Amino acid sequence: MHHTRPAGALAVADADAPACALALWGRLDAWSLPVARSRLQQAVDEAEGDEVVVDVAGLEIWDAGALGVLASTQRRASRDGRQLVLTGGSPRLCRMLRAARLHRLLVLCDGEPAPPHQA
């Protein structure tokens, strides 16, 4: 059976900013989690630096599954000596990360892409 995504579905693109790996916008929910998980894992696997920066400013909807995908992506990044960095997060996202106690695991840069890691 073929399902069609409603308007506002998740979109993933390589980010324009040099320090940013991906930009996500739209809905990060049960429908879009498999695509998001795959693209995030690919970004971690292909990252050349210590940080994998993901611009989340364009996300409209998050759910608990989305937070789980971000946490598992961070664990994968950590195994490779990298850090997942979220940029452009809203105050709502910050509250969700704190409520889920994920603010200790995930790095959130407030509205600005994270600078490249200096060795």
Walk me through what this model shows.
With 119 residues, the chain is an alpha/beta fold. Helices cover 33% and strands 26% of the residues. It is built from 3 helices and 5 strands; from the N terminus they run E-E-H-E-H-E-H-E. The protein has helices spanning 33-46, 64-79, 91-99, and strands spanning 11-14, 22-28, 51-62, 83-87, 107-109. The protein has a 5-stranded mixed beta sheet with strand order 1-2-3-4-5, covered by helices on one side. Helix 2 links the parallel strand 3 and strand 4 (83-87). It is globular. The model is unreliable at 1-8 and 111-119 (pLDDT under 50).
Residue windows where pLDDT falls under 50 for at least 5 positions? 1-8, 111-119
Structural class: alpha/beta
Helix content range:
25-40%
**Judging from the principal axes of the Cα atoms, what is the shape?**
globular
User: What is the end-to-end distance?
Assistant: 50 Å
Give the tally of β-strands. Answer: 5
Number of H/I helices: 3
Summarize the biggest pleated sheet: 5 strands, mixed
Radius of gyration: 14 Å
Q: Identify the quaternary structure here.
A: single chain
> Which band does the percent of strand residues land in?
25-35%
Spatial order of strands in the largest sheet:
1-2-3-4-5
Mean of the pLDDT scores? 78
SSE order:
EEHEHEHE
